[in-house]
């Protein structure tokens, strides 16, 4: 994804439950020449409290065990860049939500009708 200069992009990890493990990984590059650049990443819990702040890093990882149920916020900040947009590659895993995904997939399978070939659902 692209993050323009002087901006911040935030995303929510919805319906996190106590005991889940969140793993976040990211890498930042110039949109012009692929050179590694730095960005700031932060993670806030369901109350808005900052869990981690990784200032101006070219890449990073962070693991966190959820202590309170709710929505968590991940933000990537490019406010220190004057001109360049940054290309951000990031991913996250949530360990502990496997049962929720299986239940939602089973519900989807049970609710599929012969006249519908696909089942629309959102899995967090």
Radius of gyration: 18 Å
Q: What gross morphology would you assign? A: elongated
Main sheet summary: 4 strands, antiparallel
Residue windows where pLDDT falls under 50 for at least 5 positions: 102-124
* Mean pLDDT level: 83
Supply the helix-strand structural class: mainly beta
Share in helix? 10-25%
Order of strands across the main sheet: 1-8-3-6
Strand content: over 45%
Count of DSSP H/I helices = 1
The run of helices and strands is EEEEEEEEH
How many distinct beta strands? Answer: 8
Summarize this structure as a short list of keywords or feature phrases.
four-stranded antiparallel sheet; disordered C terminus; single chain; 124 residues; mainly beta
Describe this entry's structure for a reader.
This protein has 124 residues and is mainly beta. The chain contains one helix and eight strands, in the order E-E-E-E-E-E-E-E-H. It has one helix spanning 98-111; strands at residues 2-3, 8-16, 21-30, 39-44, 50-57, 59-65, 70-77, 86-95. Strands 1-8-3-6 form a four-stranded antiparallel β-sheet, with no helix packed on it. A four-stranded antiparallel β-sheet has the order 2-7-4-5, with no helix packed on it. A hairpin with a 5-residue loop joins strand 4 and strand 5. It is elongated. The two termini are 20 Å apart.
């Amino acid at each position: 994804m692209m993050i323009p200069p002087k901006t911040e992009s935030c995303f929510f990890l919805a319906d996190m439950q106590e005991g889940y493990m969140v793993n976040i990984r990211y890498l930042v590059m110039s949109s012009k020449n692929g050179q590694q650049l730095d960005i700031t990443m932060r993670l806030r819990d369901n109350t808005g409290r900052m869990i981690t702040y990784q200032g101006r890093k070219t890449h990073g990882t962070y693991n966190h065990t959820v202590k309170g149920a709710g929505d968590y916020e991940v933000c990537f900040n490019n406010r220190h860049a004057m001109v360049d947009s940054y290309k951000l590659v990031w991913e996250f895993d949530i360990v502990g939500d496997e049962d929720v995904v299986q239940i939602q997939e089973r519900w989807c399978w049970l609710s599929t009708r012969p006249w519908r070939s696909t089942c629309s659902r959102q899995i967090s």
